[in-house]
What does this fold into?
Amino acid sequence: MGRVILILLLLSLLFAHPHSFIDYETTICFDDEGVSGVQTTWYFDEMFSSFVEAYDVDGDRIFSDAEVKVLKAEAFDNLKEHNYFSKFYIDGKIFYPTFIKDFKPFFVEDKIVYSFFVPCHVQATAMPKEMIVMFFDPTYYIHVDPVKKEAVSFENDHNYSVVVNREKRKQDAYYQNVIVPAGFRVRFSKK
It folds into this structure.
């Protein structure tokens, strides 16, 4: 019986695959108090891009305010149910975003890009704080991965000491613990 279950599990993994791909980069934004949030940019694959480009109704390769409103309502807002594929840890406690700001879709060559801001306030102190930033779809319908090893940058961090490390997060593995997402561990403190 155990072999049958193992074979079924392996077959389900063999035929399972994501239907879309997102490469992301992110900027940890600081203000006078500490971290104010995470600016995120998602770069979509050709297949999803060909679907979303239909929202550029006039075909001018620029999304008007009206086009953005419809696109966001029909091809982004549903991700609220999935925490915008975001999972953060703040000093060891999980933080799931409940809303985003400043959603902007645009074209880069023939691909669609989404840019948006995730508010996430973390007050800095003289003692280091720790934040882990990850983006992934635990259903594995969409594969989300950092665009490169240095996919995290910082904005207005001149008053802070900041160290970042990319790491595989085995404790956040999903899809029957086969897929291990990459996360970015950010440690910061006041200078």
Remarks:
- The CA atoms of residues 96 and 134 lie 10 Å apart.
